[in-house]
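Appendix B. Extra example for self-study. Work through it before the problem class; the solution is given directly after the inputs so you can check yourself.
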Amino acid sequence: MATTKLAFIVQRPPYKSENPKLALTHAIASQSVEIYLSDGDMVEPVIAFIGDGVLNCLKNQKAMETYGIISTENHIKNSLLVDLKVLVCKEDIARFGLSEDAIVLDAEEMGADMKVQVVSFDEITKEMESANHLLFF
Amino acid sequence: MATTKLAFIVQRPPYKSENPKLALTHAIASQSVEIYLSDGDMVEPVIAFIGDGVLNCLKNQKAMETYGIISTENHIKNSLLVDLKVLVCKEDIARFGLSEDAIVLDAEEMGADMKVQVVSFDEITKEMESANHLLFF
Amino acid sequence: MGKLTIGCFSSLVGSMSLDFAVKLASAAIDKGHRVDLWVSGNGTTLAKKGQKPFKDYSYLAKSVTELTAKGLQVTACEACAEARGYHKEDTMEGVKRFSMDWYLASCFDADRVLHIGGE
Amino acid sequence: MGKLTIGCFSSLVGSMSLDFAVKLASAAIDKGHRVDLWVSGNGTTLAKKGQKPFKDYSYLAKSVTELTAKGLQVTACEACAEARGYHKEDTMEGVKRFSMDWYLASCFDADRVLHIGGE
Amino acid sequence: MRLGIFVSDFRNSVDTLDRLKAEKLGIILVQNGVYHATVKENGKSSPILDKSTSLYALYEDLATRGLTSADVDSRVKVVTYSDVVDLIFNEYEKLAWL
Amino acid sequence: MRLGIFVSDFRNSVDTLDRLKAEKLGIILVQNGVYHATVKENGKSSPILDKSTSLYALYEDLATRGLTSADVDSRVKVVTYSDVVDLIFNEYEKLAWL
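Solution. Structure tokens for the complete assembly:
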């Protein structure tokens, strides 16, 4: 019985490449990883948006209307729906002059209990320290 | 009878993507473009390396030994061999503290008469002005 | 009405530059312009037959098919495609494969050239 | 001896990151380590059957075939491949296709994970 | 020359824009380039907005990223793909995608 | 944590390196990252070389670009792929590719 903790750190804005989105879909895949593992073994992901990566978290992304693809916003909400831990760097939100109101913070309309946590970079560093492996996107 | 002048401007270092190399191979393709054109019509390419792009011009690139691919250096020499005009920005060479000795300047060993010209950015601007179209790599 | 030649060297799906190129081509054709689209390097993936639509991924095959019917010329760099294991039979209907000189010839009589060569 | 899991999300040929991943895998296997290689996004192009060698283009198909014979596990993201028109029959021999959870499972018991997610 | 420059990145890895000279120079912000029109870092607008008086940002790429006209700097005009076609053919004779 | 950071670009589009903290932090320059070890701009070395005392540059990527050990800053150790494997398993426990 073991748990491997993986930290998915998103440091780039959305849509230039699909990598920020792939961070979320890979983290969500932790829900089905047990088919490969022994009983009781787990993969525990944590997702953190830092630097320009916090721009992934803006509300009202119209990617489906404009380019026919599911928005990164939607993928963040899907992550909350399966109870993943999602962190956004407080200092970077301040640097961009964004109010918390402009940021995806919950997926209540989808029935998710989990919320996005706005935390200091020091908190995110602690998550990296407690993770077994780091995956930067 | 018309000539269309295309300016291929390389502004990024080699090998991160294959784009700087594709600038050269596309410019070289001007040699065979006549099959698509009327008699006397021509495409005249000029290649200019600016900014970090001047790093494409360093001598002794061992890309074949290390990764099994023809070096960008070799493609510059092939361009000279088919008499293309190749320019390198003088100010950027100075900025990187490179001597002209460190830069590919000719392909004499392959029998090319043409030489790489080290010119000021103002000269390169004039080439862009006289070109019909610009292609930045 | 003019002729616009677009060259795009970025990857399908991964980068949105091909999406940009296709949408711009569509808008220009709607206004009565002629458009040539050259895909080279990783951009040749646009020409692959059998792309599967997922809502998660950008899906351009349908737009390309519609636009070629409206006169868009799409040509993929032959060597770039072969290097990636895309052979002639892997190419989407309506899309051509030629050497790089095709792109230069298209630029020859174009009124405007938009070369998307960024990374 | 340890286990190294490498994830690579960059395109074949266009970026040298897949070259890096394959060379690092080879060096690690030569030292007796176990290596898993996960290719996702545009990295799935590494798994395409029928890549043609040109001296102008990076050609990794041969190295991958040799390394899988030496125990390298290469798995491509199934959805990413399908979106690009790579189906099961397009996949190089010795390379597997699974969902993203395969990568997480490989990370689970890896001693080291090198995730190449840059652009 | 009349030069239309497409900026598609928020963090540019090249300094070409600082050097290009043209009698008429327009900047069309597309893809992640649209953040130059909307984001203030530490209260400051992007220096790109000082490079030209003809500034455009693509509506579709703003909307994709959750941005609206209200977020866009007043110096920047929001345009659609259809407008970009007209800019290409009517306002500029040469184009550069950096 | 003991963190090995791979830098693969000459112009970084992210500022993550400036923020990461670790008891032991090593920087492995690969691909176009090797220019940090060799290029002086206006006479100045790359500021990346001040971020750590454990600096490495990949031999194969130097050679590819026409660079030799003689071009490399004295603070940086030239390593092969085989050496990188040992760094990964013996010197660091977590890895970051920025």
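Self-check: The two ends of chain E are 17 Å apart (CA to CA). If your reasoning did not lead you there, revisit section 3.
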